[in-house]
Amino acid sequence: MAKKILMSVNMRCQKCRSEALKIGGQTTGVTFVGLEGEEKDQVVVIGEGIDAAGLVLRLRKKVGFAVLISVTDVDTSE
């Protein structure tokens, strides 16, 4: 079952946004990475077998302050 991980990340510039997407995309098992929110300050990662806490730690180290908002199951059988 795939998981949808929603994280709020403090991104000050376009370079921070692209770095956050790059980190999300390099994670093993990821099928989708995107930005959400009114100010595009939330990173959405969908995939199987993703370590949500580890992903947040990598974002904190490379981009800035990050908070895990939610982890939900996603039905991908279409």
UniProtKB/TrEMBL annotation:
Gene3D superfamilies associated with the record: 3.30.70.100
Q: Spell out the protein name for this chain.
A: HMA domain-containing protein
* Species this chain originates from: Eruca vesicaria subsp. sativa (Garden rocket)
Upper taxonomic classification of the species?
Answer: Eukaryota, Viridiplantae, Streptophyta, Embryophyta, Tracheophyta
